[in-house]
Design brief:
The structure is a homodimer.
Chain A (H helix, E strand, L loop, with lengths): L1 E3 L2 H9 L5 E6 L5 H13 L2 E6 L9 H6 L4 H10 L4 E3 L3 H4 L6 E5 L7 H4 L3 H16 L3 E5 L3 H13 L5 E5 L19 H6 L2 H14 L5 H13 L4 E10 L13 E9 L2 E9 L4
Parallel strand pairs in A: 1-4, 2-3, 2-6, 3-4, 6-7
Antiparallel strand pairs in A: 8-9, 9-10
Helix pairs in contact in A: 7-8, 10-11
């Protein structure tokens, strides 16, 4: 496994690759969710490149950026075990040299859901992904469904800007109690970690109601909120039922719906989502 | 010469090319300035691709967009004569399908000079150039120094977003009386066309003063304004002396300076510029 830290070096490696390149951009603190992306890439592509870069512009605050979990040594061990070909670990100044000031913005869908709570977040995401795609020039890039809106923003960007990369979305990996795998889970203490299983229980309430024929979003949303309120450590940020592509409000579930939520547990912000499909 | 109008078709052609690709994005109404770019590309690159697309988002108004000169038949004849390999002439909906909403913004330098008069202009330029680069995947792209700020914005974008394209800047071509070649010159009537030579005369005043040792920008600027005011058909929009890279104000010319101006003659807006180099 080749670990490189400069743009020049990874480009050199890239030029030497025959066949398809699978790319997984990460912010490190790797978990099984990331490894599911890696394994999907290993199945599809000749060569797999993983990047590890904690991208400051997509954080809401210096504090959130500073405390984001980092463990490069462990990340590299995990990737070594997966027989990854190249890991790109650039320092911040390699990606954002002094005077950097060009930004990619996917309007509209960046403003919904997470965008309301985190203005500028998806501009940071779209910009780093554009840069990494231009540096790596992958055939395919892999993202987790857990960050549903991120997947939509990146897919829209790829379509709108004619970026020649195929986006592969991999289903959310969950812990035994249903909690979606996320690097931020590491920030939870034991009691908070226990409480965090309520997110998936609330999503399961939605799935069960929908399976039993409920199509009224308000009714499902209220039941989810009641479920979440059973957990005193949880502060709800949003619970939304929207169209799965444009994130428009969907009062009646007559097509594929994205059920998404964001909560705070202590000082940790967690998100999760499921898709509901219309009855056939 | 192969004229193609869909993204799929030009990508197919692109995949078949061995060797370097030179790309000249244009809005048509080709003149010798464009042909100088084409000839430079022919000298450097194995295959040359020209695009013709009047890019609505970079226009300030529907009216300006509507009256922009168009003559596809003549453009194709000129390119045929230059033995161009491929011409990409997409219809508007191929580039901006319904729902398109992703934009590239080079902040700061997009706000100076032209950006003040034409908010959104360079966002339109940066976005279309990003799209065309992603579609064509050229080795080199060619732009005219006549649009000095456009060159800066695109070069900054290429650097900031790690776009793998070399930008080649070709000196401004001028008519016998010094008027910079521009598609918009076609919109001038005979009397206006005559008046338009004042732009280059004003720039020549700057060059001569600088050659004689004047380094005070205000002094040069005043002399240029006096020169322009001799022409009653001219309305001055701006006359600026800035750094050539960041477009910061440059009160004393102690490094390379960009002397740029924008005027209206009748209803036609014209721009021009020269570079002044510091004494050795």
């Amino acid at each position: 496994m080749d670990v490189v830290s400069t743009i020049t070096a990874i480009r050199d490696k890239r030029r030497g690759i025959m066949g398809s390149v699978g790319f997984i951009p990460t912010m490190g603190a790797l978990h099984d969710g990331h490894l599911a992306l890696v394994r999907e890439a290993k199945r599809n592509d000749t060569v797999v490149i993983v990047s590890i870069f904690v991208n400051q512009p997509q954080f809401d605050s210096q504090q959130d950026f500073a405390r984001y979990p980092r463990d490069l040594k462990r990340d590299l061990e995990l990737l070594e075990r997966e027989k990854i070909d190249f890991v790109f670990v650039p320092p911040c100044e390699e990606i954002y040299p002094a005077g950097f000031n060009t930004w990619v913005e996917v309007k509209q869908i960046s403003k919904e859901l997470e965008g309301r709570a985190r203005p500028g977040h998806f501009c940071g995401v779209a910009t780093i992904v554009t840069k990494l795609f231009n540096i790596i020039q992958p055939t395919r890039a892999y993202f987790g469904q857990k960050d549903a809106q991120q997947v939509l923003v990146i897919s829209k960007m790829v379509t709108d800007l004619n970026i020649d990369v195929e986006i592969i979305v991999v289903p959310t990996l969950r812990e035994a109690d249903g909690l979606a795998m996320s690097s931020r889970n590491l920030l939870l203490n034991a009691r908070e970690r226990q409480a965090a299983s309520i997110l998936y229980r609330a999503l399961t309430v939605a799935r069960q109601m929908h399976n039993r024929g409920t199509v009224d979003s308000a009714e499902i949303r209220n039941a989810m909120i009641s479920c979440l309120k059973q957990e005193p450590l949880v502060t709800i940020e949003y619970v939304e039922i929207t169209t799965a592509d444009t994130l428009d409000e969907l009062p009646i579930i007559d097509r594929t719906a994205l059920v998404s939520l964001a909560v705070r547990i202590g000082s940790v912000r967690l998100i999760d989502n499921i898709l509901l499909y219309p009855p056939k």
